[in-house]
Amino acid sequence: MIAAEGQSAPLLEVRGIDKSFPGVHALSNISFEVRAGEVHALLGENGAGKSTLIKIMSGVYRPDAGSILVEGRETRLAGPDDARRAGIATIYQELLLFPELSVAENIFLGHAPRAGGGRIDWRAMRAKAEALLASLEIDDLAADQIVGALTVGNRQRVEILRALSHDARILIMDEPTAALTEADVTRLFDIVRRLKARGVGVVYISHRLEEIFLIADRVTVLRDGAYVGRRQVAETSSAELVQMMVGRRIDNLFPKIVVPIGAPVLEARDVVRRPMTKGVSLTVRAGEIVGLAGLVGAGRSEFAQTVFGIAPAESGEIRLMGEAIRINSPESARAKGIAYVPEDRGVQGLVRPMSVLHNLSLAALGALSRVGFIDRLGERRLADTAIKRFSVKTSSLDEIAGRLSGGNQQKIVLGKWLANNPKLLILDEPTRGIDVGTKAEIHRLMCELAGAGVAILMISSELPEVLGMSDRVLVMREGRLVAEFDRAHATSEAVGAAMMGGEPNMEKAA
Amino acid sequence: MSATAALGATSARGWTLRRFASQEALLAVAVIGLAVVVGFINPRFLAYRNLADVLLGNAYIGIAAVGMSMVIISGNIDISVGALIGVLATVSGSLAVAGAPIVVCWLAPLILGVAVMAAQGAVVAYLRIPAIVVTLGMMSILRGGLISVTGGKWITDLPDTFHLADLNVLGAPMPVVIMVVATAVAALWMRYSPRGRSIYATGGNAEAARLCGVNPQRTVVMVFALHGLFAGAATLVYATQLRVIQSTTPSGLELTIITATVVGGVSILGGVGTVIGATLAAILIAEITSALVFINISPYWTDAVRGALIIATVIADIMRRQRRAARGWKK
Amino acid sequence: MSLAIETPGRKLPRWVTRHETMLALILAIALLALGAFNDRFLTVDNLLNQGRLMTEIGLIALPMTFVIITGGIDLSVGAIVGLCAIMLGYSWKYFGFPLPLAILFALAVGGAAGLVNGLVITRIKVPPLIMTIATLALYRGLAEGVSQAHSVRNYPEWFYILGQGSVLGVPTQLVILIVLVVIAGVALDRTTFGRTLYAIGSNETAARFSALNVDRTKLVIYTLSGLASALAAVVLVSRVTTTRMDMGMGYELDVIAAVVLGGTSIFGGSGTIWGTVIGVAMIQLLKNGLALTGVKGDATIIVIGVALILSVLIASSMQRRRDQSA
Questions:
Q1: Cβ within 8 Å, pair A81-B213
Q2: Would the CB atoms of A358 and C213 count as touching at under 8 Å?
Q3: Of A402, A472, A505, C278, which is the most exposed, with the fewest CB atoms less than 10 Å away?
Q4: Please, how many CA atoms are within 13 Å of residue B15, restricted to the half-sphere of its CB?
Q5: In sequence order, what are the residues at sequence separation of 6 or more whose Cβ sits closer than 8 angstroms to the Cβ of residue A148?
């Protein structure tokens, strides 16, 4: 029951959307639409702008420019309530549920059926909830169950039912399969198909190509806040989509300097840490840059955090410079010469309210202090050196770190860790959300470090970066290493294919 | 429907029933069980006179626990209620001694209680000051205010008509009647009224509550106001049983009320619990206090028992939540 | 690390607009005003005596500053004072400990009480507010239970030197306080430990990711809080010559009010020991001033309660204005 293009107005359409935040231009001139009975996927790597776009469509943000049309009529969404009234429901990754209340109550909170005297009619609520459950043929969830005890998959179902209870005609789903088991994903698709049949328009945000091909009718690709292209799913291929997602102008060629590669620094054998790291074995040598590619959710950051001690390994062996060690905490990792520049700059990397000076010294306090007393002169010297070395633009060392631009913030996080002269440097999305100029600076720095004998493990979702910088490219999928390429044989087709997997690991729908 | 799914459904339903009824049932069993055990050791414990004293003398804690439950379920805390009850008792008594109409003496604690608590709720909700700071400050203001205004004098020669708690309603003592009515009304309201449910929503996930059309700020003010109402009602029962109203507040009263609430099944992190459990727990705590005397343990250990109870309950609650969160990850 | 208030327009030198400087000015003005109002106030004798009286709160306010900087709170300090006072008296009188051992025992009890707080907060992850309310109840209850409301008196004369004696004219406990203030202030300002506290309060996740040992630091500060309470208990007993089970009641209010008044944000991430010292002095000043104008002791807590709420209010609205302009 998919409306043919052009026959009626789309359920939801946005035109010419612009949105900026301090220091970051999140969206430029984006247009997007979804029709009744269609699943329109929104595809792009992290930082592409998908999140911002759906927040605009659900009324959480207001666009700087552009218009929103609901069923052809221009609408202003002043807040999430307006969106809900317009029939738009959003299912976020962080589910907004009440863990101590029942399924039925979660669905109907705020608009519960009433009996005489205005009191809540629990029986009617339960009946309606059960009706909703039945309408999507969900037979293993009871209306009385307490949401907090449900698995993630079931909780998501409750969120979907909540949206349906509001008679939503447009359902926006933000990375819905990120935390689901394979069985849950199959059931989710089942539900999405039923919704399609009812004429609901679904905006499906994902970075997982195999799912797009299973469930979506059309797909729009975003990259760095800009619109790249739109395709009918039946008329495109995953190779083309990958190219659209990650391909960039190859005008900033990374100055890859070939450097002698030394002894192994990190050797991981069958490292396991539930739930994401299922058995990873890899080696990184001194002077080597190993690129770790994979789609979001492959488990790369989780593996890195296991090596760094945030989530210590449950089994398997890790050797550093040939010596088998146990890494139980970031402290012991640092002591052994491991450094980790995290993915989430603002939350994990920087202490934003603190000064540039204090952020730069934060990981090196032990080295900078004697008997616990911080050598302030030494600290300033370290910070001055870092500022100069990385060309950090800041008005002074005492400037609040949170006020700096993204690129400069990233330089500070890097500088913080390089102050320790680590032997193994793990970089997690080192150039995400950073301007081109700073990107090149960081790449140059990486080559410099490799030349000095540092072993570098670089996690990146930008294929050109991976291909351009790495001596070897490793690909992770679902918590395991699935492919390894040396520099000569790493091509975007080969790596992209490995990232997505040979055959999809779910049954194709009937 | 597969067998495992069917099993899942029934055990889920059973689990739900078990979860909600468990705390209240457990408490009821504890109350009765303790009485039996202590009565075995010292039969005088079971004398009607004693049991009546325990119940009547502590009913006011059960009433105050109803209001405190609402505050904690909404995700906040209040440690000023003990001092407030002291102040309200003095106000009520002073009015009576000054010759004001008895009805005024009885209404004054209710109205004043609502006013003082609602003001605190507004500061917490709209000025974003943490509840612990506001109520800590208010507790001292009330306590100090009481001493300085009364000068330490006790209120004696209260008129006979003052003693509301001595009246009977259809043969039942007034304190018990008020406690039962207060608990029942509150329980029904929190179950059947959308405003009542909004308390659970605000305490469970304030952001989600906002998206459901609940106004978290207004809910917090309402909760504190109700808390003040129940504190006023508790004062009524407490003060009108006394022949002499002291100018100090019962020490540690707020802790006892919080303990009753938490032991009664209200999670200190908010979002869950019932007032019935709180009332039952208040009775249990009163019973324990009396029991200690009858089995020859010094009453000075009461507070230690209370402290142990609250710690055990809180730790158990937090660990239960962590186990549940961990399970959500299972693939 | 302090709350520097930005002045629009001409930039004043940083140390002038520091929160602590402004507080010190207010304190100085208040001292002079009170002195003008009452000629008994600005005598050396009275001031030294005030110094003596503010030591107990001052001692506890030092680790409380650490705790609040990390975004935590410790409401059990008053109860720990009571418990340690009891343990001091009872181990001496009824267990037969020699008094010096009893003192050590009391300190150990305080440290253990604080350690329990820290362990449950870091291992079981009970929020500090909730844990310390619960231990407030428990420790007070233990104090009552152990003492059975009996007091202990008639300590040996030498013991009273701590609470009532002087060293070169300065009250003994004040000397101890001054030493500890310096140690605490230097630690907070210049050591890795201090820097870690600020990091935890500003962004605990980033602190962990920066390989700082967050859990061990938290364990240390809650244990210190218990130890300081124990020390305050010893000083208190020495000063008033008896041990009673209700000692320390209400201390948490004074301590937290002093810390917050001194510029430490209740939400964590900022604050200094020097500010806390001024805050303690101001609280003591309030009490003394009120007493001199004839207000009875108990009523002073009204003012302290108001001061607590007001200072958090003012601090948080200034913070919001600062965030908006950023």
A1: yes
A2: no
A3: A505
A4: 17
A5: A99, A100, B321, B324
DSSP C152: B
Q: Which of A109, A142, A181 comes nearest B331 by C-beta? A: A181
- Predicted pLDDT at C10: 42
Calculate the alpha carbon distances from C30 to C21, C33, C262, C281 in Å: 14, 5, 15, 11
Strand ranges across the sheet with A264-273: A277-285, A264-273, A315-320, A323-325
Q: How far is Cα C303 from Cα C258, in angstroms, rounded to an integer?
A: 12
Q: Using CA atoms, how far apart are residues B265 and C300, in angstroms rounded to an integer? A: 37
Contact C120 B315 (CB under 8 A): yes
Task: Provide the pLDDT for residue B16.
Answer: 46
Number of CB atoms found within 10 A of residue B168's CB: 10
> Is the pLDDT confidence value at A111 over 70?
yes
Alpha helices in A352-421 (DSSP H): 356-361, 365-368, 376-390, 406-418
Of B205, B310, B216, give the one whose Cα is nearest residue B264: B310
| Per-position b or e across A74-110, b if 16+ CB within 10 A of its CB | ebebeebebbbebbbbbbbeebbbbbbbbbbbbbbbb
Is the CB of A351 inside 8 Å of chain C's CB atoms?
Answer: yes
| Residue corresponding to tokens 């009775």 | B283
Mutate: best of A351, A397, A403, A410, partner C, most C CBs <10 A: A351
Q: For chain A, give the number of residues.
A: 510
DSSP string of A180-224?
--HHHHHHHHHHHHHHHHTT-EEEEEES-HHHHHHH-SEEEEEET
C-alpha closest to that of C61 among C231, C245, C201: C231
Confidence of residue C26 (pLDDT cuts 50, 70, 90): confident
Does C29 lie at the interface with B, CB-CB under 8 angstroms? Answer: no
CB A360 within 8 A of CB A386: yes
pLDDT tens per residue, range A268-319: 999 999 888 899 999 999 999 999 998 777 889 999 999 999 999 999 999 9
Cβ-count burial A427-460 (b if 16+ within 10 Å, e if not):
bbbbbbbbeeebbbbbbebbbebbeebbbbbbbb
Sign, CA dihedral B257-B263-B264-B268, equals positive
Residue C303 has pLDDT above 80, yes or no: yes
Tokens 């707080």 sit on residue = C117
Kindly provide the ipTM of the predicted complex, given to two decimals.
0.86
Asked if pLDDT for residue A507 goes beyond 60, the answer is no
Query: Taking a C-beta distance cutoff of 8 angstroms, is the pair A418, A339 a contact?
Result: yes
Domains and CATH numbers, chain C: 41-315 (1.10.3470)
Contact A105 B197 (CB under 8 A): yes
Q: Choose the weakest-confidence range: A133-142, B53-62, C239-248, C294-303.
A: C294-303
Chain B window 221-240: which residues touch A at a Cβ cutoff of 8 Å? Answer: none
Looking at beta carbons, which pairs linking A15-20 to residues 24 or more positions away fall under 8 Å?
Answer: A15/A66, A15/A67, A15/A69, A16/A65, A16/A66, A16/A67, A17/A53, A17/A56, A17/A63, A17/A65, A17/A66, A18/A63, A18/A64, A18/A65, A18/A66, A19/A52, A19/A56, A19/A61, A19/A63, A19/A64, A20/A64
Q: Which of C130, C135, C148, C256 to mutate to test the interface with B (most CBs of B within 10 A)?
A: C130
Q: Give the mutation candidate from C69, C192, C196, C209 for the A interface (greatest A CB count, under 10 A).
A: C209
What phi and psi values does residue A46 have, to the nearest 5 degrees? -60, 135
* A274 or A332, greater pLDDT: A332
